[in-house]
Amino acid sequence: MKLVDMHCDTIYELQRDGEGQSLFHNHLCVDVERMRQAETMVQFFACFVDAKEWEEERREAHGGSVQGEGDAARPPVNGGMRISEGTWERAYARVLEMQRRLETEQGDGLKQVFSYQDILENQRKNVISAVATVEEGGVLNGNIERVDELYQKGIRLITLTWNYENCLAYPNSRDERIMRSGLKPFGRSVLQRMNELGMIVDVSHLSDGGFWDCIKYSQAPIVASHSNCRALCSHPRNLTDEMLRALAEKGGVAGLNFYPAFLKEERGREGIALRDIARHARHMIDVAGEDIVAIGTDFDGFEKEDAPGYISHVGEMESVWDAFAAENITPRQIDKIQSKNALRVMQGVWHGGNKRKK
């Protein structure tokens, strides 16, 4: 068992359109059968919500009016859609539904973990460890007690933002004003509480200003669970060399994201290839050292790329390791990327023995 993948959206896809399918067998990119092929040790499952979809439904039902909803009636600074409190409540309920699904579907071969010790116990039994995460901190909706509630339910990582402004912070953006914006006061309170509990702070999707606030204020290593190198692909979701170095100095990791748009800007006739993933791994090592690189595939979070020489599901991960070797990434470095770097962060942040209260 050698793979730790810090991000996939499989639970979201199963909840949205997965009738008759499960984590053990499905038509998506991640299931137990193919995780076995990849020798997966730990798979992070994101309880992801796109609140904008529900906000649009709500506004259509009210004829587009948002009057009488206080803060929700004012336009957000980034010109996007401000999400109402009612929609965030609906999103929080959906997160809990996805968490329950993960808990219900575990069985022989896949078991949810709540501590680093649980991972070691599963490894001894040849069982894949499942980690529940939340991708969209806006579901907290200004309620700090929800951090504790999510922790008690087994959530061990929160991605502070997705693509919208929320109660914690601002998202990545091509608007420089938004990219400079940092954590909100509530976001700093959440960061502190996550540190106290032993939850991993995830800065993927966050604005640059929010990233630097997390570097400044977090008392524990932080991660960018599924982000690549901005020097190789200038998408704002990626990290600059300066950010990669700061993340490494903080003891954190960046999970290589397999979404083609974050790997290569102009694909043209050449398309996307495994070597593009390897190029980002090589660059991370060159600018920030071999301890920063991890895997955060983002499987089931984007449409499968129909490209020869690319990867279509987790069962094909061996081809990624071959691409790394072709990029002169050493066996020791590949071992760290596969699992050791991510495991180091989990062991450190999770305080070694925290369990969910029964």
Overview of the structural elements:
Helix content is 40%, strand content 11%. The protein has helices spanning 10-17, 32-37, 51-61, 85-105, 116-124, 145-152, 176-180, 185-197, 208-217, 241-249, 274-288, 317-326, 331-349, and strands at residues 3-5, 40-48, 110-112, 128-135, 155-159, 200-202, 223-224, 253-256, 293-295. The chain is an alpha/beta fold. Mean pLDDT is 91; it is low at 65-79 and 352-358. 50% of the residues are buried.
Write the layout of secondary structure elements.
Layout (H helix, E strand, L loop, with lengths): L2 E3 L4 H8 L14 H6 L2 E9 L2 H11 L23 H21 L4 E3 L3 H9 L3 E8 L9 H8 L2 E5 L16 H5 L4 H13 L2 E3 L5 H10 L5 E2 L16 H9 L3 E4 L17 H15 L4 E3 L21 H10 L4 H19 L9
Parallel strand pairs: 1-2, 2-4, 3-4, 4-5, 5-6, 7-8, 8-9
Helix pairs in contact: 3-4, 11-12
Q: Give helix and strand order, one letter per element, not per position.
A: EHHEHHEHEHEHHEHEHEHEHH
How many domains, as an integer? 1
Bin the strand percentage.
5-15%
> Regarding CATH, which class?
Alpha Beta
Main sheet specs: 6 strands, parallel
- How far is the first residue's CA from the last residue's CA? 29 Å
Q: What Rg do the Cα atoms give?
A: 19 Å
Question: Overall mean pLDDT score?
Answer: 91
Contiguous helical run count = 13
Unreliable stretches covering 5 or more consecutive residues: 65-79, 352-358
Say which CATH homologous superfamily is assigned: Metal-dependent hydrolases
How helix-rich are the residues, as a percent range?
40-55%
**Sheet/helix structural class:** alpha/beta
Number of strands: 9
